[in-house]
Design a protein that fits this description.
Elements lengths: L5 E2 L1 H8 L3 H10 L17 E2 H7 L1 H16 L1
Antiparallel strand pairs: 1-2
Length: 73
């Protein structure tokens, strides 16, 4: 996947074992990097795969696997 792949709080939360609300709360507290991407005409903030990989490579790998499994389904 491209480093520019965007990740929603829902996907990030699923890989971290927390809710999307908790993802945003932890980002506000500095425990998760702040979102660094936006999608025009879509609500919410997103993270790039590159940013997540710099923070936690294991979580980036899990997100990548999750996204690939959803594409295959």
């Amino acid at each position: 996947m491209s480093p520019k792949t965007v990740i929603s709080a829902l996907h990030l939360g699923e890989c971290l074992g927390i809710s999307s609300v908790a993802v945003h709360q932890r980002a506000a507290l500095g425990k998760i990097p702040p979102p660094d991407a936006r999608i025009i005409n879509r609500r919410g903030n997103y993270w790039t795969l590159h940013r997540i990989r710099r923070w936690r490579p294991d979580i980036a790998d899990a997100v990548e696997k999750l996204l690939k499994s959803q594409i295959a389904a």
